[in-house]
Amino acid sequence: MPALSKAPVLSSSDAVAHLASYQCLDGLSVRDLMDSRVHGGLTYNDFLMLPGKIDFPASDVITDTRITRNVVLKTPFMSSPMDTVTETDMAISLALLGGIGVIHHNQSPESQAAMVRAVKRHENGFIADPVVFSPNHTVADVLDIKTRLGFCGIPITGALYVSPVSSG
């Protein structure tokens, strides 16, 4: 494998001077920048974002991101499906911000399904349809729900239904 040449990291003043040598003073087009025959593979160190003039209002910027044929995010917040990145808490946090968390697959399908159920049941800090037990349930029932749904506590009530809180 050929040795990769390590380009020096430019200071901001050197980067601005280098930018002045481009034919287009606004930098490279995306097509030129992403041409792997010219630049090879790119990393974060290959990009230097400089403030500059834009000829359109910020309100014209469209941040929609198509995730699937039927799912479009208005805010481009999406997490990686890595076991150290996206589990239930991260997926809930991203969903509350209008994004999406991709649950990782480095676990059993049952565990993945439990994480997805826990995320779907979470609604802005309120559980719209809580799981409740009566005094007649056993500890085994509690442990089963905790394992399947990931709950750390289950309310014990006199009824098997809790009416939702009304806001009127």
What is the SS-derived class? Answer: mainly alpha
Order of helices and strands: HHHEEEHEHEEH
Distance between the termini: 70 Å
Give the biggest beta sheet.
2 strands, antiparallel
- Name the strands of the widest sheet in spatial order: 1-2
Oligomeric state: single chain
Unreliable spans: none
Average of pLDDT = 76
- Count of beta strands: 6
Number of helices: 6
- Helicity range of the residues? 25-40%
Strand percentage: 5-15%
Question: In one word, what is the shape?
Answer: elongated
Radius of gyration: 25 Å
Report on the architecture of this protein:
The chain is elongated. With about 170 residues, it is mainly alpha-helical. The N and C termini lie far apart (about 70 Å). The protein has helices spanning about 10-20, 30-35, 35-40, 90-95, 110-120, 140-150; strands at about 65, 70-75, 80, 100, 120-125, 125. The protein has 6 helices and 6 strands, in the order αααβββαβαββα. The mean pLDDT is about 75. Helix 4 (about 90-95) packs parallel to helix 5 (about 110-120). A two-stranded antiparallel ribbon has the order 1-2.
